[in-house]
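Each lists sequence, tokenised fold; shown next:
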Amino acid sequence: MSLAYQQPGSTTFIPEIWDAELLTAFDPLLVWASPLVSNNKYEGEIRQKGDTVHVNSLLRPTVGEYKLPDGMTAQRPETVDQELVITEADYIQVLIEDAERVQLAGGLDSPINQQMIRALARKADTFMGNIIVNSATALPAITPTAENIPQSLYSAILDMMLELDSSDIPAGRYVVVSPRVKRYLIEHPSVANAAAYGEGGVTANGVVARLAGFTILTTTAMPAGVDIVAGHSEFSTYASQLTGFREGQSEKYRANYADTLHLYGGRVLRYPGLDTQKPDKTWDDTKPTKGIVKAAVTWPTS
């Protein structure tokens, strides 16, 4: 079937192909919004900006001591609702004078389209980074000397892991660092010799190295005032939907267009025993979470 914008008798431009190309190019560019840092368990079916995804948290049951003749007392499971609102709506639109020629020439692989995809991904990643950092627990600033920067940064990361240990945060953690931290961190033998460093595809989603129990990533979309963030993907969630490409005749130019809409939202998730509950059992989102920690670096001046 020929589409309205196509040359008569031509059906070579297929929007679904562009959908797949966009996802392939888009997902590896994410760091904060990648599954390594933010889970996507609650995406559901997103149709428009303003949609709400409901996340139910099960309250931790009380463990009782079994003894005779008391037996056991049953508890009813309780849940607390957390809302994930789809607050963002971004778009990418590509003007094409000859849809078939563009697709045959590489479509979204062209340099200008790749730059547009990077901009779309960076905006979503910056949004999610701010969500995570604003709810993270702040730790004391890291103050290396000029002689021990790599060791000081690596020791700070181990201290962050210890802080997460104190809250029983499970293994499979992440550490996101700024490019400047990465520059010195890879001089440390534990990072430079990590098995994942230098392996094929290691730069996807900003991965620098995988060490025992945590993955180090880097991003240029680091929120201001912070250099290192550590946590677990169970404590932040990101919901995203690319609505699929549509095509038609541009009203502004003598050209056709192909565009897609990116709908997304994110939040930090709260857990019983770790986060503060209000009297009505909803979560106090103004308090930092113990599942994510952050620190700034006070860099030596000489």
In short: The first helix runs from residue 15 to 26. The chain has six helices and twelve strands. The helical segments are 15-26, 99-104, 111-134, 149-165, 179-185, 189-192. Residues 1-19, 195-203 have pLDDT under 50 and may be disordered.
